Amino acid sequence: MATVKLALVQFESELMDVAANVRKGLEFVRQASRQGADLVVFPELFVTGYNTDVIGDRYQELAEDTGGSTVKAFREAARTHGINIVVPMALKRADGAVTNGAVIIGRDGALRGTYSKVHLWEDERKYFEPGGACSPYELDFGKLGVLICYDAGFPEAARTLALQGAKLIVTPSAFSIEDKHRWDIYYPARALENTCFVAGVNGVGGGLRLFGNNKLANPRGELIVSGNLNEEDMQVLEIDLDEADEYSKQTPYLRDLRMDTYGYQA
Q: Among the options 24, 92, 117, 167, which is catalytic?
């Protein structure tokens, strides 16, 4: 068995109060570690909060690079508590551009990589530069795929990660209640068609009616987590990544994909 215990956090951010959000985030890391979690995942832009109408241009000044105080704090927490962490944040690149990103930290505190949201939603493109690649990250339990929110609406993104061997894809998000019909579809669909585990990790509040309701679908496309609505919470559960191989034998979407027809390169 290739088991991994996940902690998925429905986080309610204080808009633009980075210090408060980091403090609370570190407490969730401690709680997840006490429950034996191997990986803790937070929602999209939880460090600053998600609300482009309110925060707008301030994302530029609130953004940090991987050497900043936020990443340093979570790296130390990962090392202290022995847990892998996905930290979604406004991320400043070496060229000065700011992305809607995520930092992936190993349980030894080492940086395993960064991801920048490829498909920007509505006016996000006013404040962020899009990313240009979907590749999994090597963690101690295997390859982890990371997408962010609107990325999950593009089957090609998850498919690209699955073709590179990701058996678990996590999707930090900021979904408002008006779009819950999409939220309910994305994760089971992406899990089924790629025979892998796919999680959606949503914020709460923020003035945009973010509603929580974290999702986790197994490689059969069955929901095994559907979190509470409209409340801060954390779901902790263990999954067996070997199920991805078992289900892919039963329904071999990836094996039977006509790479020559669709031009996939992974």
A: 117
Nearest-5° angle of CA 152, CA 86, CA 99? 65
pLDDT tens digit string along 174-208?
999 999 999 999 999 999 999 999 999 999 998 89
| pLDDT of the residue at 27 | 98
Cα separation, 209 vs 103, in Å, equals 25
Spot the catalytic one: 12, 44, 64, 129.
Answer: 44
- Six-digit token pair at 237? 């559960």
Q: Write down the catalytic residue from 12, 124, 143, 149.
A: 149
* Residue 117 designated active-site: yes
CA 194/CA 248 separation, integer angstroms: 8
Domains of the chain by residue range:
3-262
- Beta carbons within 10 angstroms of residue 260's beta carbon: 7
pLDDT tens profile 58-85: 999 999 999 999 999 999 999 999 999 9
Q: Which CATH superfamily hosts domain 3-262?
A: Carbon-nitrogen hydrolase (3.60.110.10)
Distance CA 231, CA 249 (A): 38
Clarify whether 44 is annotated catalytic: yes
Contact 233, 42 (CB under 8 A): no
Q: Which residues pair with 171 in a beta bridge?
A: 200
The letter for the amino acid at 5 is: K
Tokens of 143: 């390859």
Q: Is 143 helix (H, G, I), strand (E, B) or coil?
A: strand
